[in-house]
Write a structure and sequence with these properties.
Strand content: 25-35%
Oligomer: single chain
Largest sheet: 5 strands, antiparallel
Structural class: alpha+beta
Keywords: Membrane, Signal, Transmembrane, Transmembrane helix
CATH class: Mainly Beta
Helix content: 25-40%
Transmembrane segments: 139-156
Mean pLDDT: 73
Signal peptide: 1-23
CATH superfamily: CD59
Distance between the termini: 101 Å
Radius of gyration: 24 Å
Length: 157
């Protein structure tokens, strides 16, 4: 081998090492939007089963998860796994409004964005709110009550 070949091999080896050392990790990549058939829900539960496209991507920055959870049912209504656009990412955690929790999570490491993107304690709190005696009555309970009242009125008249 002459000197030119050694230099080329050295440069290729160095470039390969630098690409690994700069934090380029593999992340899960998928998205789910609420739909009646729950098409794509495997993005929420098991991203390796994502069938709409490739379930993995190489990220130069952090792996991320962004999700929305219904306060009424505790189910994910939106879920995204992927890469951050840069070094600046929102703080991990959740915010809320009257209907949903909005959660964000970021991490560094191969396939580290495989979790639910919501704190387990908060998720249990959502589910607990639907238990009897919690004061929160799911909307279908009101619908059943209204239906029963309507049927009673129709049968009386």
């Amino acid at each position: 081998m002459d000197i030119k070949h050694l230099v080329c091999v050295g440069i290729i080896t160095l470039m390969s090492f630098l690409s690994v050392a700069t934090g380029r990790q593999m992340c899960y990549s998928c998205a789910y939007n609420f739909n009646a058939l729950k098409n794509g829900y495997n993005c929420v539960t098991y991203p390796k089963n994502w069938t709409v496209g490739d379930w993995r991507m190489r990220c130069p920055n952090k792996c991320t998860e962004s999700s929305h959870y219904s306060k009424e049912t505790g189910e994910a209504t939106y879920f995204y796994r992927g890469c951050s656009g840069g070094d600046e990412v929102p703080e991990d955690g959740c915010t809320e409004d009257d209907l949903k929790f909005y959660c964000f999570y970021s991490c560094s490491g191969h396939y580290c964005n495989d979790g639910p993107a919501i704190d387990e304690e908060l998720f249990n709190e959502i589910k607990q709110d639907d238990e009897p005696g919690s004061g929160n009555v799911p909307i279908y309970s009101w619908m059943l009550t209204d239906f029963a009242f309507l049927m009673a009125v129709l049968f009386i008249h």
